[in-house]
Write a structure and sequence with these properties.
The complex is a heterodimer of chains A (292) and B (318).
Chain A: H1 3-11, H2 17-26, H3 29-51, H4 82-118, H5 120-134, H6 138-149, H7 153-162, H8 166-180, H9 183-190, H10 195-206, H11 208-232, H12 250-253, H13 258-285
Helix pairs in contact in A: 2-13, 3-4, 3-13, 4-5, 4-7, 4-8, 4-11, 6-7, 8-11, 9-10, 11-13
Chain B: H1 2-29, H2 36-39, H3 46-56, H4 62-76, H5 89-124, H6 129-143, H7 146-160, H8 178-212, H9 215-222, H10 227-249, H11 251-264, H12 270-280, H13 283-311, H14 313-316
The chains are: A mainly alpha (292), B mainly alpha (318).
């Protein structure tokens, strides 16, 4: 078979945007490994109620017991199974991170679309607003909001989203500005398509590649912010475990049971690292659709 | 450049006003209101609450209170009094602010000191072992939560090795001693700097790689300039422009990081002050800290702008 035929056989393969992206994604080995880590973590999270003991079951005669067959990672200061708390903590931390990113995506896309599509004064106004939001001291404001308004699942997600939609807005706006000049948009306008249709049918689907990457990296950031908030004691409130609040009292047991301080951080770091690598892999995989 | 800076300075005023108003509204809308520090968990007669409210002017309309507060801040630098200790808020903040600034700037200094050379070397030796290791480490460094890194640093250097103090700014009772101060500064500033070393070295690498492909580099090589001369005379300066922009944009993040670092290392800066003020719901103090920290962030952004203008002739000669 000569070279030409080979090319022919390949081109008869079923192709499509997803297959193409997957083919490129596979080449990023770290991203692939990290995707499997995340899938494994998700399975653990979903199965948590069946595979782990109750994370709030106290056993005061068994405080700070070292890792054993019964308690794989030992027990904490109230004799609760540490691994169970870590896995249930993953549910809390990741749910908040996902909700936050989802809200940030919706709002960012909305602002970015309006600014990019309408341009002019509206664009100027919205982008100055984005600039202002970017210069605010994020963590102090998050802490103050959490104290003044109160911290629960939804409010924490909302607060985190309030300080992370700007990247998405900027990306969507930039994409729109580039796409608006393309012929297919001109054609759509000429055919009498409504603004609504042009935005949702034509502009938005073509601007999604960088948004997907930003969203993936955004999850990583959201996990870090939530854990910091909870660590300081203003986020998820005990006894509900979250990766951050499991470290709140770490200073008390850094001498007695250092592994209790090590594992939650390792879980956070590994998860955040995985999301960062997956984002990196997606960036490479979606590259032909990313305009420089 | 004067015009450019003046415009930037003027832009900060409405920004500060908006922050102040938002904070004011939030505090007065919370359940319990600004006096929850008194009502929370204590038996206190409603009559006494009214009396305290009267004496603090809390019964006046909200806008009156705001403008009164604003007048005091602008004309007298008076941020009010802490509801817990009754010390002036401005005094409490001024005592702590230098520590925060020291921590932030030493972290900034360390970040630049490490990130730039690492990034430059990675770009020059693209796909070498060094580049590969640096890339992996920056991914890891970027993913580690700062508070956990602080705990681990304490665990290793203070608890296990006993090399460095785990918290505070200086040995109690000792007169001022630079070496002693530095010993206390090492852990917090390195912990704070790590994230930025990780991300800025990546930006530096990417920016330099982009600039190394430019035509003027080929011209310089054709002229027979040495690689070192090309790097320092032509490429580096251009490559620094986007990096400095990012450094400026991320200064608020250094401040956010300082809040966490201060809490872990018992570093008496305004981050730790805020942490305790929040725990006690000391509203005037919270409000004052928010205003001052916004000011710190805005001023450091301005500093980045000046640096930016300095290395970018297109702005300098405008």
């Amino acid at each position: 078979m000569n070279k030409r035929d080979k090319n022919l056989t390949i081109s008869t393969f079923p192709t499509g945007i997803f297959l193409e992206v997957w083919r490129r994604y596979k080449r990023h080995k770290m991203a692939l490994v990290c995707s499997f880590i995340l899938i494994f973590l998700y399975l653990l999270m979903i199965l948590a109620p069946w595979i782990t003991p109750n994370p709030n079951q106290q056993d005061l005669s068994n405080r700070y017991s070292p890792p054993s067959l019964k308690h794989w990672l030992g027990t904490d200061e109230l004799g609760r199974d540490f691994l169970a708390r870590l896995i249930h903590g993953a549910r809390v931390s990741l749910t908040i991170a996902f909700t936050a990113v989802l809200i940030a995506l919706l709002f960012g896309i909305l602002v970015g679309s309006i600014a990019g599509y309408y341009g002019g004064f509206i664009d100027n106004f919205l982008m100055r607003f984005v600039d202002i939001m970017l210069t605010l001291p994020e963590l102090p404001l998050l802490l103050i909001l959490a104290v003044l308004i109160g911290a629960n699942f939804l409010t924490i997600s909302l607060f985190i989203a309030a300080f992370s939609w700007m990247t998405v807005a900027r990306l969507v706006r930039a994409e729109f500005l580039g796409l608006k000049k393309k012929e297919f948009i001109e054609a759509a306008i000429a055919l009498g398509a409504s603004s609504w249709r042009i935005i949702f049918r034509h502009l938005l689907p073509n601007s999604l590649a960088p948004v997907i990457v930003a969203a993936t990296l955004g999850i990583a950031d959201a996990i870090l912010i939530e854990s910091a908030l909870s660590f300081l004691g203003f986020g998820v409130q005990p006894p509900t475990p979250s990766w951050g609040n499991m470290l709140t009292n770490a200073h008390d047991f850094l001498w007695r049971a250092p592994y209790l301080a090590i594992f939650p951080g390792l879980f956070i770091a590994l998860t955040v690292l995985s999301f960062n690598y997956v984002g990196d892999g997606l960036r490479d995989a979606l590259d032909p659709f990313l305009k420089e | 450049m004067g015009f450019y800076l003046k415009r930037r300075l003027l832009q900060t005023i409405p920004l500060l006003l908006i922050i102040a108003i938002l904070c004011f509204i939030l505090i007065h809308q919370t359940p319990g209101g600004p006096l929850s520090v008194y009502t929370f968990g204590r038996k206190i007669a409603p009559r006494d609450i009214e009396r305290i409210k009267d004496s603090l002017g809390l019964n006046k309309p909200l806008y009156w209170q705001f403008f009164y507060w604003l007048r005091q801040v602008v004309f007298y630098g008076d941020l009010g009094y802490s509801y817990v200790t009754w010390q002036p808020v401005s005094k409490l903040i001024w005592e702590r602010l230098p520590n925060t600034v020291i921590l932030m700037f030493s972290a900034l200094f360390l970040s630049i000191l490490f990130a730039f050379p690492i990034g430059i070397f990675s770009a020059l030796k693209k796909y070498s072992l060094f580049d590969y290791v640096a890339t992996t480490f920056s991914f890891i460094g970027y993913s580690i939560p700062i508070f956990w890194l602080g705990l681990m640093a304490q665990l290793v250097f203070s608890v296990k090795l006993g090399l460095l103090p785990s918290g505070g700014v200086r040995t109690p009772g000792l007169p001022f001693n630079l070496l002693d101060r530095i010993k206390y500064l090492v852990l917090p500033s390195f912990v704070l700097a790590l994230t930025f070393i990780a991300s800025w070295s990546r930006y530096m690498r990417a920016s330099l790689l982009g600039k190394l492909r430019e035509n003027y580099v080929i011209t310089a090589r054709a002229k027979g300039l040495s690689e070192v001369a090309i790097l320092f005379k032509h490429v580096l300066r251009n490559a620094l422009i986007p990096v400095v922009t990012i450094v400026g944009l991320q200064l608020p993040l250094i401040f956010s990081g300082a809040v966490i670092t201060e809490t872990i290392f018992a570093w008496p800066g305004i981050g730790r002050l805020l942490f305790h003020a929040l725990l006690r719901r000391d509203y005037p103090l919270i409000q004052g800290i928010l205003l001052i920290s916004s000011l710190v962030v805005i001023l450091s952004n301005l500093l980045a702008d000046i640096a930016y203008a300095y290395i970018n002739p297109r702005i300098r000669y405008e």
